[in-house]
Amino acid sequence: MPPLRVLVVGASIAGPTAAYWFARAGAKVTVIERFPHLRTNGQNIDIRTVGVTVMRKMPGMEEAVRAKTIPLKCIAAVRSDGRPFGVISTTGNPDQQSLVSEFEIYRGDLSQILYDRTHAHPNITYIFGEQVASIQQHDQADGPVKVEFASGSPTMEFDLVVSCDGATSRTRAIGLGVGMRDYLEPTGTWAAFFSAKQDLLDGNNKMGKAYNAVGGRIIAAGPDPSGVSRVVLMKRYAQKDSSATQPFRDAMNQGGDALRQFVAQTYRGAGWKCDEVIKDMMEAEDFYASEIVHVKVPRLSKGRFVLVGDAGYAASTGTGTSLAMAGAYVLAGEVCKHKGDLAGALQGYEDVMRPLIDDMQKVPPLLPVFFTPQTAWGLWLRNMVFAFVCWSGILSLTQKFFSGAFAGTERYQLPQYEWQE
Ligand SMILES: Cc1cc2nc3c(=O)[nH]c(=O)nc-3n(C[C@H](O)[C@H](O)[C@H](O)COP(=O)(O)OP(=O)(O)OC[C@H]3O[C@@H](n4cnc5c(N)ncnc54)[C@H](O)[C@@H]3O)c2cc1C
Ligand SMILES: *[C@@H]1O[C@H](CO)[C@@H](O)[C@H](O)[C@H]1NC(C)=O
């Protein structure tokens, strides 16, 4: 049987992980990425639960990740004058993770590690600066598909198209024949990420800092080995519908500096070091901002088209990276298991992933309110509760309460597959 020809769209986390496992399944893989190079910006992401399981199945991967994990040991919540009033720390046991994960790594570093493990493989080809223009089913209903590209690559035939191009995936709209915002569930939240030149952590590279202001605004800073502070500014609106974040999207569509101006305006005068941080943001080279959404599709595949990672099941609960890694592994594994039967493989992928997705997309009911209170009263109450919880050492209890999103590795089992390579 000739090797399966697989097109993977997107080279962030899900894409390179899918390329790795499809090569192990004996496929010939082409990965296309819309950007002209690997995107290495972004803030810290967590590898948890099934993400840890998949990482440990890739030889040498855990060591590579450990070499790049952020030295962060705890996060201090600070008052407007910078005084901390509560501290959350890691558990030190990766199998029993807390709010601060043991495998906390910058998104760009994880993406680079995955790319480094795949780009020289003889059966994997990366093409940067390319995206899908159209996908056409061949005459025979169950045959391969013909893919046209937008930036000059010749039209090619593939047995399977795997869309890994993120929550606002354009390829999803093409592959499923739906609108761009179909299946997006807004959370009424956006976030901006960048590096600040100044050290917001006063030389302590083990402790991050987080500061809340009214109106659901949070600013958090984490250490970076190179000496800068990695900053995230997040804003959660009281109403969750799409209209809340419309001004954010309008600013994004205007391009240029409009989005930075919009973020700056939201944070100016908010307290702590916000005003100085905004100055750094205006000049940051690695500025990245996005609306935070959930993606919920009725079915993960259609014909020869399938979604993996945020494109198919973005979760706003910090579990997106782990779900993406698990999805890539399971899809390639099911293809290996159902040799010559793609429909069976796609059904297997659906059956294994669905319960995992449903569970990991659940937002613990109080979590957003806890992290981004809207009102001065809510903020005061949150701070009191938080300070008390930290002081009295019952934080582990709180973490058990939020355990849906922060469970250990043993909570979910992934199937074992027999790989070809
Ligand atoms: C630059 C960047 C920074 C991020 N920063 C953070 C962060 O700080 N914190 C956090 O929690 N999450 C962040 N994320 C999201 C996080 O990576 C994902 O939630 C999670 O890891 C799942 O990854 P994914 O590979 O499914 O999707 P994503 O990480 O969203 O990757 C999608 C990839 O597809 C590419 N792409 C998009 N459209 C097309 C197209 N039409 N054709 C080809 N390629 C396309 C994108 O450039 C990107 O490389 C960031 C994502 C990106 C792209
Ligand atoms: C590449 O794919 C071919 C089948 O097309 C296979 O025989 C070969 O072992 C693969 N190479 C590697 C390094 O996996």
Automatic annotation (TrEMBL):
What domain of life does the native source organism fall in? Eukaryota
An MF annotation (GO) of this entry: FAD binding
Residue span(s) of domain FAD-binding:
5-332
Alphabetized, the UniProt keywords read: FAD, Flavoprotein, Oxidoreductase
One Pfam family named in its UniProt record: FAD_binding_3
Can you name this protein? Oxidoreductase
Species? Aspergillus saccharolyticus JOP 1030-1
